[in-house]
Design brief:
It is a single chain. The chain has 10 helices and 9 strands. The chain has a single domain, classed as TIM Barrel, CATH 3.20.20.150. The protein starts with a strand and ends with a helix. About 45% of the residues lie in helices and about 15% in strands. The structure holds L-Erythrulose and manganese (II) ion (MN). The site of manganese (II) ion (MN) has 5 residues, from loops.
């Protein structure tokens, strides 16, 4: 059975985005635990932004897990991506993500590559070669630390690399890349997939994390995604990873966290 998770945004400079809880690590973990979440997904400025021993204390105190760690701050704050034309920037992006992989691995949590993938330039083949090389290296690092790396297909307004699960899976397979799984973000999939449930079934073996948000990126139940068939697909493939609320804190964090847990119980506690 899948496990529930909720996001916590901890990057001081970032004040808006699809994260449920904001700014305070302990209070957010405490609130998530009180609502019955199994884990929290962290969005931090860097791998050393959170004190590992302090985090460990909170997780033990509230019996919580880290579901995943996001790497997007490397792009949003520092302008780094894996496909930048400048080799120095690409190297910094690699180092940033490698540190995040190591940070997350201490909690058995995978790091997610979302916006850090960047965009293909005019020479798409060259950009894909950079991406393949980097995913190969970071996937091997993740495996050596006992975790997977998670690659996230994003919608077309955020990347032109891979927008659908199937295209990303084909790329990873063609390149023979090990240690990298896919993230099924239901918001991006609502924009890009012709049938979300069908895509989940076809790419079942690749899915290692799920971002749980409705069609408008509000918490599930506030948009028009047909969740019954999506949840049925996840149940049918035996998905037992985290279903993590990466959604806007709409109408506010507390209501969004509560609504997401109600939806999680409705669709996955069967
Ligand atoms: C990250 O998980 C994601 O979904 C992106 O849209 C963030 O920009
Ligand atoms: Mn996402």
């Amino acid at each position: 059975m899948s496990r529930s998770s909720v996001t916590i945004a901890l990057v001081p400079e970032i004040k808006q985005g699809p994260w449920i809880y904001w700014h305070n690590l302990e209070t957010s973990i405490q609130k998530a635990a009180a609502l019955g979440y199994d884990g929290v997904e962290l969005f931090t400025a860097s791998a050393d932004a959170v004190d590992v021993s302090v985090l460990r204390t909170y997780l033990e105190e509230y019996s919580m897990r880290i579901s995943a760690v996001g790497t997007g701050a490397g792009k949003v704050i520092q302008g780094l991506t894996l496909t930048d034309p400048n080799p120095e920037i690409r190297q910094k992006a690699m180092d940033f993500i490698a540190d995040m992989v190591a940070f997350g691995a201490q909690f058995q949590a995978p790091a997610i590559i979302g916006s850090m993938q960047g965009n293909a330039g005019s020479d798409r083949a060259e950009s894909l070669a950079y991406l393949a090389q980097d995913l190969r290296e970071l996937g091997a690092l993740a495996l050596s630390l006992g975790v997977f790396l998670i690659y996230e297909p994003l919608n077309r307004y955020e990347t032109n690399l891979f927008n659908r699960l199937e295209d990303a899976a084909q790329f990873l397979e063609d390149e023979g890349i090990q240690g990298v799984g896919l993230l099924a973000d239901l918001f991006h999939m609502n924009i890009e997939e012709s049938d979300i449930a069908e895509s989940i079934r076809r790419n079942a073996s690749w899915i290692r994390h799920v971002h749980f948000a409705d069609s408008n990126r509000r918490p599930i139940g506030n948009g028009h995604t047909e969740m019954n068939s999506v949840a049925e697909a996840l149940r049918d493939i035996g998905y037992d990873g985290f279903v993590s609320a990466e959604a806007f804190p709409w109408p506010d964090s507390e209501a969004a966290a509560t609504q997401t847990m109600t939806a999680f119980n409705q669709y996955f506690k069967k």
